[in-house]
UniProtKB/TrEMBL annotation:
PROSITE patterns: PROKAR_LIPOPROTEIN. It comes from Planococcus maitriensis. This is Lipoprotein.
Length: 123
């Protein structure tokens, strides 16, 4: 019985250490919508994924160069646009600075000689 009680107490303590927060950032420009999800898994580790969607009136470009910047770092790439969308691959880090709930992320998208900049905010 003591072993069972010790096991349950241990699980409760470990369960309390595994708290994580999910932040859903989004923003729009004249030609693009960006959705960026950040899972803060501890005070110094995170995982992030996202999607960039073309909303312009002209046909979507074949490639873009994008940058999503925060105080904790940046995600960027020169990528192909597939049917008007780009999936921002999963990025992760441990022992790093993490994005905060109330932070604003700066986005820059370049394509076909054009540049659009806007801000992402947590919903």
């Amino acid at each position: 019985m003591k072993k069972l009680a010790s096991l349950l107490i241990g699980l409760l303590i470990l369960g309390g250490c595994s708290e994580s927060d999910r932040y859903n950032f989004k923003g729009s420009g004249d030609n693009w919508d960006v959705f960026y999800t950040v899972d803060v898994t501890s005070q110094d580790s995170k995982e992030a994924t996202g999607k960039i969607v073309y909303t312009g009136k002209e046909p979507s470009p074949e490639t873009i160069i994008y940058s999503i910047e925060s105080t904790a770092g940046a995600s960027s790439g020169n990528v192909l646009v597939d049917e008007g969308e780009v999936l921002v691959g999963k990025s992760a880090c441990e022992g790093c600075a993490v994005i905060q709930r109330d932070e604003e992320l700066d986005v820059e998208i370049k394509w076909d000689g054009q540049v659009e900049e806007f801000v992402l905010r947590n919903e």
